[in-house]
Amino acid sequence: MGSPCTVAKGLSCRMEGLFWQLVLLITLYVGFFLCLSNNFKGKAAGSKKPNFIIILADDMGWGDLGVNWEESEDTPHLDKMAQEGMRFVDFHTAASTCSPSRAALLTGRLGLRNGVTHNFAVSSVGGLPLNETTLAEVLKGAGYRTGIIGKWHLGHNGFYHPNFRGFDDYFGIPYSNDMGCTDTPGYNLPPCPSCPQQPKTASCHRRDCYTEIALPLLENLTIVEQPVNLTSLTQRYMEKAIEFIQHASESGQPFFLYIALSHMHVPLTFHQDHANRSSKGPYGCTLREMDYLVGRIKDKVDSTVRESTVIWFTGGSSAKQTTWEGGHRVPAIVYWPGRIPGNVTSPVLLSILDIFPTLVFLANASLPSNRRFDGLDVSQVIFGNSLEGHKTIFHPNSGAAGKYGVIQTVRLEQYKAFYVTELMLALEEIGSV
């Protein structure tokens, strides 16, 4: 018996077979591309870059945070954020003065590496060396909108200005709030006078009072107020921060916002809305104002970009110029709902130096390859997956004794070794040792 495909019907049978082979091939191709497309969509949804907000307090003590010390009652919003996030009780700044600690945060490197070992003055023509790469520059290269609100203090002339160091937007003061006179001088002991009405007859009440230079407020490259009104400055910072978050969330572009506060640096100033709100006088009222600002920013994040935004609050320094724990151990809270476990107190030894490499990792960006970093990527620590931080942390001299920037103290786990102390230096000067 012959094949069904006879010579007469052979051509028709072959055409029918080719047809079904083609149908099968098309089906396989369609299925493959649908699967590939869904895979790409899943990766895109899972790899969306998070937003970052760093809030840096100035001269805030470890015990100023209510959850760190039960006698402190002026930080209800920060205490709430700690309960909803992760609090670090052994977190350290990289220097106990302003410019070196800020340089360390933005470079992930100690002053001996990044070149910033002392504070920049009003008269300084330089700043953070231009061959240093800032966190803002790395994140901007990774597609982020970048902004800084508050105190810069890393150089205010020429290319040292924050707009040339990776920040798209800048609103704040170029250095500390005591480095220029104002019409609202605030609380300090002894106090500095207001800006003189007649500069030619002005006299300085204190050696470190600035009576001939009015403290400016800048928006990008433009001075928008001079002297700045310090009592309303926090409100303006808050408004700018909320505006930045709103615009960035509407654009869909990931953002990095660095909020560098003057609180709790002298002179202490606060709006009248926060007057008489604390039993600790002007210090407590200033602390409450700072806490209120943090609360408003957190509320804005929670109502717009809650699930995609990391808030990292910490301090730049505590007690000035010392390498004892009071000068370097600072409050620290990290908040990211759904990603960072809530109501966790971590004992891990961490540093402000770790912020740079950690955020770069979370942004799926790359660290500059031509330099050494002193910070660690601690993403697994903040996610609650690891208890491994630093075994050693180095504290440089920030003016207490010896040469600026030289390593003065070493933390090794729970131990601390002092190689130079203020007392030793004083004894050497009088010839007692």
SSE arrangement:
Layout: H1 10-46, E1 51-57, H2 76-84, E2 86-88, E3 91-92, H3 98-107, H4 111-114, H5 135-141, E4 145-150, E5 169-172, E6 217-219, E7 222-225, H6 230-251, E8 255-260, H7 281-304, E9 309-315, H8 325-328, E10 332-335, E11 344-346, E12 350-351, H9 355-362, H10 379-382, E13 392-396, E14 407-412, E15 415-418, H11 422-429
Explain the overall architecture.
32% of the residues lie in helices and 15% in strands. It has 11 helices and 15 strands. The strands form 3 sheets. A 10-stranded mixed sheet has the order 7-6-5-4-8-1-9-10-2-11, sandwiched between helices. It has a 3-stranded antiparallel sheet with strand order 13-14-15, with no helix packed on it. Strands 3-12 form a two-stranded parallel sheet. It is globular, with a radius of gyration of 28 Å.
